[in-house]
């Protein structure tokens, strides 16, 4: 083979050029060109992956690098900083501003069963990038399709544990985080060298065939919540008011109780004071109590004075009538009081005495 190559080179070279030296020079030039072809440049958003005889050997950073030229080593420079996107449930299109919008629904991917056995239409996107270029190139045959299938599988699992109402409203952020976490765990198990950066729900709606009926149900639920809120507001208004009224009544009852207890203690103290005074001077205290009691009784009754030394016709003085007449503005006194003066009563009393002598009064 070497001799045939030399003969072929001699045919192309002009005669008289030195034969073997010329061939050697040509071979050196070819070898130099072949060796210089091993230089390659890696861009800032790329990573160099060097394969030696088809097997992974090493990775090289961005910049100018060198690898043994083909067929010994080959270099691949995947973009490791670019964010890739996998759409599930739709095929994306772009509007006039370049914004990605769903262009066509894929119902086979988007229709999913919820935890309460309802069906919803879910469109979402999985954003990912290359984390390990070696694993990305050699551990999975089709990394893009693997990411899409893993995201769809995990989304069906998470939706299957979630009721339809939270999935349509407040649980969307939680669903996105859960799907991202589980998809990343699955890709790590595959050793795909992929990092899931974000899962974005674009549409979570009931199927188009039942969306009107579902909206009626939503309106009914909204009315129910409104009525419940109104009832809660009424309860929050009336209960504190009733509690305040009850507290006021309790305070009033407590005040009345305290006043009655204080009054009873005062009466008991007064009685104990009287008892103490009675113990010190029983005769004086008894007489004072008797006089006070009689004064209280006589103040409310008519006053009649009777002389126990008289018999027969008993003259009496109705003093209360005269006081009432004076209190009413009259000047006339009762007839008995006008006539019975001390000078007149003395003879009458003397006349009655002989009859009483020797008798029993």
TrEMBL record:
Composition bias type Low complexity, residue spans: 324-339
- Its transmembrane ranges are 21-40
Q: Name one GO molecular function term.
A: peptidase activity
User: Polar residues bias: where?
Assistant: 349-361
Q: How does it sit in the membrane?
A: Single-pass membrane protein
Cellular localization per UniProt: Membrane
Q: What is its main location?
A: membrane
Which parts of the sequence are annotated with region: Disordered?
324-361
Q: Which UniProt keywords apply?
A: Coiled coil, Hydrolase, Membrane, Protease, Transmembrane, Transmembrane helix
Q: Which residues form a coiled coil?
A: 210-237
Q: Which residues form the Band domain?
A: 37-218
Q: Which SMART domains match?
A: PHB
Instruction: Provide a GO biological process annotation.
Output: proteolysis
- One Gene Ontology cellular component annotation held by this UniProt entry: membrane
Does Hydrolase count among this protein's keywords? yes
Purpose of the protein: HflC and HflK could encode or regulate a protease.
Assembly and partners are described as: HflC and HflK may interact to form a multimeric complex.
Give the family from UniProt. Answer: Belongs to the band 7/mec-2 family. HflK subfamily.
* Name of protein: Protein HflK
The species this protein belongs to is Roseococcus suduntuyensis
């Amino acid at each position: 083979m070497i001799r045939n190559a030399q003969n072929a080179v001699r045919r192309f070279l002009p005669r008289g050029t030195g034969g073997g030296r010329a061939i050697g020079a040509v071979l050196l030039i070819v070898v130099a060109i072949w060796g210089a072809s091993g230089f390659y440049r890696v861009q800032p958003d790329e990573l160099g992956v060097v394969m030696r005889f088809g097997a992974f050997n090493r990775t090289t950073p961005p910049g100018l690098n060198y690898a043994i030229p083909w067929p010994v080593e080959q270099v691949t420079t995947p973009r490791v900083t670019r964010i890739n996107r996998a759409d599930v449930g739709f095929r994306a299109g772009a509007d006039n501003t370049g914004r990605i919008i769903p262009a066509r629904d894929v119902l086979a991917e988007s229709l999913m069963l919820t935890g309460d056995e309802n069906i919803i239409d879910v469109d979402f996107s999985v954003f990912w990038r290359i984390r390990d270029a070696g694993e990305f190139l050699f551990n999975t045959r089709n990394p893009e399709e693997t990411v899409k299938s893993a995201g769809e599988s995990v989304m069906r699992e998470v939706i299957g544990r979630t009721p339809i109402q939270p999935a349509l409203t407040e649980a969307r952020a939680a669903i996105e985080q859960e799907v991202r976490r589980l998809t990343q765990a699955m890709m790590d198990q595959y050793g795909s060298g992929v990092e899931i950066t974000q899962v974005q729900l674009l549409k979570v709606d009931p199927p188009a065939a039942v969306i009107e009926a579902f909206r009626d149900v939503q309106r009914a639920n909204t009315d129910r919540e409104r009525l419940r809120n109104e009832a809660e507001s009424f309860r929050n208004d009336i209960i504190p008011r009733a509690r305040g009224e009850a507290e006021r009544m309790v305070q009033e009852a407590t005040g009345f109780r305290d006043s009655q207890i204080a009054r009873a203690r005062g009466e008991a103290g007064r009685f104990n004071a009287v008892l103490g005074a009675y113990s010190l001077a029983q005769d004086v205290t008894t007489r004072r109590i008797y006089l006070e009691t009689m004064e209280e009784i006589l103040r409310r009754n008519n006053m009649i004075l009777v002389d126990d030394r008289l018999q027969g016709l008993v003259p009496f003085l109705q003093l209360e009538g005269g006081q009432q007449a004076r209190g009413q503005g009259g000047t006339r006194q009762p007839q008995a009081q006008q006539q019975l003066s001390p000078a007149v009563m003395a003879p009458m009393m003397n006349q009655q005495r002989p009859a009483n002598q020797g008798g029993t009064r």
